[in-house]
Amino acid sequence: MASFSERFTQGSASQYPIRSTLEAKSSPEGVDLYSRFFLAGALCCAITHGAVTPIDVVKTRIQLEPTVYNKGMVGGFRQIIAKEGAGALLTGLGPTAAGYFLQGGFKFGGYELFKKLIVSKMSNETAVENRMAIYLGASAAAEFFADIALCPLEATRIRLVSQPTFANGLLGGFARIAREEGLGGFYAGFGPILFKQIPYNMAKFATMEVVLENAIAAYGKTKSELSGGEATAFNLGSGLIAGFAAATISQPADTLLSKINKQKALPGETITGRLAKMAGELGFRGLFTGLPTRLIMVGTITAGQFSIYGELKGRLGATNTVEISKAA
């Protein structure tokens, strides 16, 4: 019987998303391979999330103060600049870049790892037939561990954005939360962030895989036959659609996460009680506050991430990956 690597990989001829046209000089395995996946994922997420920090600042303000920032995304930019200066749009850049560097590494690297672990327990035919379940399971497991790393930095970012005078940057904000609230202050939003990020990541990876597979099938080529320009176009287009799906599904939890991290809990308040109270106060419509802005932000981020990730994997020689798409 063929080995696992023979059944599920084709060296540099096949990878997820679509491989770079640069050929790998070697085929790393084990820790070496997955550390490269981690680095590629960490860099693509830090770059993309850092680049859209101004949009995220506006989105967070709209969620937290909808009666003040009620003029849409462009109007929100103007309000913040007029009131606090252009520099305010970069509030939270430090924790954003640091947090999503860690989260991106665990998210993408974990997805590759868990996908391999799952498919190694079944035949090629079974894996292909159940690929949607594999995508969903691998992305959910990866996101859980990614959120453990992200949560403290996301709590710091939201506090800095929602309370501009809270601290002067990442280190000051992190130290103040640690001093005044302890570990609980960093993980007050862990439940909401799981509720937000796990469905988000499942929708993101599964949608990307399905859209990519069907788009390439309609195009009439396999992944390995695409040129560099074609691969980039497919990654960007599929990533944009995946971002829209993920943003819509996770929007209510994103709103609650912003709310719960805005201020510390009152004595005796539980996280569950706070979430239930906030959801009741906001209502269905309120939970989707800021969605248009977030669609733009998440769609752009996701398209950029998959494009950058595919290119970085090629440059790092991390092309020895599990491939179960029919478009391979």
Automatic annotation (TrEMBL):
This is Phosphate transport protein MIR1. It comes from Violaceomyces palustris.
